[in-house]
Amino acid sequence: MTAAAILAALATTTTTATIEGYGEVAIRTMTVAERDQVAKAVDLTSKDTDQTEFGLQLVVRCVRDADGNAIFTADDLPALRGCASGKVDALVASVLKANGYLKDADAKN
Which of 22, 68, 72, 91 could cross-link with 60 by S-S, CB 3.0 to 4.6 Å? Predict the structure, then answer.
């Protein structure tokens, strides 16, 4: 095995999710650097941290267009917070699942 082979196996992947009222969007897994950015933006160790913020930060970094470019930026966070909670929760769940934070059994509960 070579470093190149291991790095290729560890590369980000892309899946799709369906957004009610829109259709399919691409969801790319986060890089280590992006995960570190989220950790800096959202203090998950604090009991005062809004857990939704973690999910929205992931949405901004992971939802992609057909060319692989990020659809959202941090400037879109206020607009995302103003969207229908059930629909945003479904998108967040898709992003969490793609990144290994949520398993199928968790999504149903």
Answer: 72
Residue found by looking up tokens 């939704």 in the block? 52
Establish if 43 belongs to a structural domain.
yes
pTM of the model: 0.83
3 belongs to a structural domain:
no
In a domain, 61, yes or no: yes
The domain that holds 96 is classified in CATH as 3.30.2220.20
79 falls in which pLDDT band (50, 70, 90)? Answer: very high
CA distance 46 to 48: 5
Domain count, the chain: 1
